[in-house]
Every structure is written in C-alpha cells, then in structure tokens.
Hints:
The structure is a homotetramer. By secondary structure, chain A is of the alpha+beta class. Chain A has a single domain (about 10-145), classed as Roll (Thiol Ester Dehydrase, Chain A). Chain A contains 3 helices and 6 strands. A 6-stranded antiparallel sheet of chain A has the order 1-2-4-5-6-3. In chain A, β1 (about 30-35) and β2 form a beta hairpin.
Amino acid sequence: xxxxxxxxxxxxxxVRDSFARQGAMALIGARLxxxxxxxxDIAVDFRxxxxxxxxxxxxxxxxxxxxxxxxxxAFSLMPDDATVLTVEYKINLIxxxxxxxxxxxxxxxxxxxxxxxxxxxxxxxxxxxDHNCATMLQxxxxxxxxxxxxxxx
Amino acid sequence: xxxxxxxxxxxxxxVRDSFARQGAMALIGARLxxxxxxxxDIAVDFRxxxxxxxxxxxxxxxxxxxxxxxxxxAFSLMPDDATVLTVEYKINLIxxxxxxxxxxxxxxxxxxxxxxxxxxxxxxxxxxxDHNCATMLQxxxxxxxxxxxxxxx
Amino acid sequence: xxxxxxxxxxxxxxVRDSFARQGAMALIGARLxxxxxxxxDIAVDFRxxxxxxxxxxxxxxxxxxxxxxxxxxAFSLMPDDATVLTVEYKINLIxxxxxxxxxxxxxxxxxxxxxxxxxxxxxxxxxxxDHNCATMLQxxxxxxxxxxxxxxx
Amino acid sequence: xxxxxxxxxxxxxxVRDSFARQGAMALIGARLxxxxxxxxDIAVDFRxxxxxxxxxxxxxxxxxxxxxxxxxxAFSLMPDDATVLTVEYKINLIxxxxxxxxxxxxxxxxxxxxxxxxxxxxxxxxxxxDHNCATMLQxxxxxxxxxxxxxxx
Lengths: 153, 153, 153, 153
C-alpha cells in the first residue's frame, strides 16, 4: 500500500513501544491505530476532559495528536538506532472540532537522512461522517545513534 | 506596563472564566498566571502524565499551553460580546523541554478588528533558570457577537 | 473538474486582470497558466536573474509564485466586489529548485466567507520530469467591498 | 553588540560575496545593509516592478528579502566550509507594505550545529517612520563541507 520501504524490520513494534511510553498520550486517551511505513493514524474519543470552552475538542488536543501522528509516520521510516524529534510544525484549524471522535492521519511527504517532512490531516467524526477540521505541515529530525528510550537521571 | 488598552473593563475576569471552562487545561494541570492586556502566561508542572517517550514534556503539551497563552492574550483585547478562535499557528521546538515547570508567555504583536497576531515563547525551568524551549507565531480571529460560552446541544 | 462553484461569472478574467497588474510577476517573468475555480497554476522559466548563489531558483522566487498561485486560487472563488489578501503562509523547501522551469499549483482546501485556506505544491521541471521542490500551507482573507484595483494616491 | 561569536573570521566577506552571487537579489534591487554575527538587514526601494495589484510592495518581495535576511543571519555564524539552506519559514503579513522602502531585519534566535532558528521582522518606511509589516519564523540548515559556490554543470 505504502510507497515507502522501512529501514527497520521492526518499524511497527518500534512505533507502538514508543507510543506506549508517552504519558501524554495516555492522559488524553489517544489510541494508536494504523501503523504503516510513512503512515500513522492516532485517534481520541470526546470527553469533557479534552474540551475547550465551547465544548469542542481543544485545539491543543488536535495539535497534540497531529504532531504525534506526523512524528510517528516519520519515525516508522527511520533506522533501528535512531529516534525522532519534532523540529517545527504549522497547523491550520479549518473547522470546529465538534464531534465524537478525532482522528489524525500523518503521512510522510518527503523522507530524508536528516530531515523528514510530513503532512497531517485531522478529521472529526460527527453524524456518521469524517469532517476535515485541521491540516498540518511538519518538519521532523532523525536523531541517529540515539535510542528511543527514556533519559537516564 | 502593557501598551494595549483593553476594550472590556472585565478583560481579566473574562479570561479567567473562559480558562476555567476548558477541560483540557485542567486535565494537563495548566495554571493561568499573568493576565494583562495583550499578555497572558500559562504554566504547567512536570509529572509523568505530560511526558513524551524520553521523559521530557511532550511537544503537544508545549503546543497546547502556547496556543492557549497566545489565544488568551488576543482575547484579553477583545470586546465583551466576542470570543476568540485560533486560525493557525506555527511552533519551533528549539530545545528539549527538560525541566520541572513549563511557562508559555503569550504576547499580542498586532491586534486587529478581525485578526490578531501573537507571539509566544515557552520556557522550561531547570536548575534555577528558565530556558527558551519553543517559539510560536499565531493568528487568532475575533468572533464578534458570539459569547464565549459552551455550545447549546 | 473543480469541486468549487465560483461566485463570480468573470472569475477567470478577474484573476488574469489582477495578475497583469502585478509588476513583480512581470519582473520575475512569471506566467499565469491554469485558472479554474479554486485552482491556479503559475510558472516561471529559469534564467540567471531568478537564481540564488548555487545557480538554482532562488527560494524567494519559489515562495513568490507559490504565494501568488494560492492567493489567486482563493481569489477565483471570491465575489465580484472583493479582493484577496495573504494573511500568512508557511513553506517547506523540500528539494533544490534545480531545473529549467518552476510551476506552482495553488489549490483551495477550505473556502470561507472571511478566511480561505490553500495548499500549494511547487514543482521544478528537470530531465523531462516534474519534481516536487516545495509545499506551502496558506491563509487568505476576503476583503469585501474593496475592488481589486490600484490604490489612489 | 551581538551576543554571538562567529565561527569564521571572514563572516562578513562571506555573506557579502554570497549575496552578490544571487541574481534574484539584483533583479529586485535588494541591498545588503547591516552584517553582524547573527544579524543581517536587507533593504529594497519601491518601484513599480516590485508591486502587487494595489501598488504596494508585493508579498513575494517581502518574503524574499525576509528569507534572505534570516538565511544570511544564520550563515554569518557558520564555519568556513559550510553553506546555508532554508528548510522552511512561516510569514505573517501584518500590515500593507505601503511605503518607499522595505527593510528586513534577520536575527538568529537559536544557532545550532545542524539547524538554526531565525526571526525576521520586515518594516516599510512611510512618512518618516518604519512600520512593522511582516514577521517571519524560519528554520535554516548548515550544509557542512559544501562551499557556498555555484553548482558545477
């Protein structure tokens, strides 16, 4: 399906392990769904704890799962001895995130040895349909020779 | 101190009330600190629930409080019958958010009737010092004639 | 072909007239190619006058035609009494703009009464192929009741 | 004045030589003004050739000199055997660029071995004052071991 060839045979396990170590993903109730080379989807269900003042999904939640979806899409193409870092992103919130479920679909546009560019679209599920509520353009960096593990204190 | 004159006499109460209605801010443990015309600071203390896989603050948390700090800085200058909407933002994560406390300082660069532009710097407190770990450029929209209140279902 | 219905019957003439009044487009040798509702392409041929220090197309030229392509894609959907303003854009230069011809393809993602969001991809033609060299995400504003004409001095 | 220490003793000559090789800067009539470690200013005078359809400076010209000012501010801190590449930038056009002269002031926020982040403010001179008309946040990359010279065909 994907047009990218992963450098790690264990790319899916590596993504799922890393995601499981992110306290913030558990806190907001995010789930890792699709994991393919260069393509990762992350979803979160609505509850009052992820809302803003009008009762929609908070923009920060939208940005958080989009950042993670694009970051893991990039990470899925990186070699075994590397980790990923978000350099920067820009997000447009194009419609209110008003619905039962959010899903961020991260896709690598351009993989690179040092920098990877990803595009992420976020959809909110309402009345049986997915509505595009945000779009992100993101730059990621490969941190070579650095395991994707917790820092040692 | 501030070079902006607020349109609402109750600007500070309006910001604090709106912030208190955001479930997502409570979930991540964010606190509203400084509220002045065009200038709002938001802080969050470190705990594992706001971490990424290396044990630093998650980039999504950094983005979330930065988005809120810039958004409320813009909202503090809006009239009583208006609410604020984030149009878009771009954030550069310039250093690891490794420390005990994050603080996002949102400042309006250019207020406008329809659009407001804000700049936000995020600092992480570590070893007694604040380190600049992220910088954001953000566009906000005034939604006139729309109270800053929950949607009616 | 396009999924958007233009508000002006003269949308194409309006885009072509406005483009013809831009001194900067003539200066860099840019040509307006495709003009459809919500979709505008702008091309420029290589010559030393549009280069940077390595002999590729200058990033500013890439950004300039991308900004215009997205802006005119938005303008093509606006009513007769309105003009367009670029609010902001973000561009990733994903490959060297090394080739004979640049083409920027501007596409509206989300039209709106006040704000429109566009996506622009820029391709450089080299060795018989178009290579994606830049990608832009852009926010445009409708200035209602303001003719798209020169200011009066 | 500057808080940065340049890695090259010839940083100013390197910036001026590179600028002089950019055909696009000559085409638009841009002048290199201030060159200090991490700080570069570029100016351009108004003439119809750099205008958009309303007779102001074209947004592409604003973006072009801002991109160059930030890029050269980053380059001024790089070692002798390196060149600079713009990874991406985001620009907000916060006021009409209506005036006699534009000046872009590029300042490094965070220099790095691989990536540098710069902030650029653009001012338009009108009626004896400089008005802030655009603000940019930009990511640059150091290309080590690659001279800042034309490509060999």
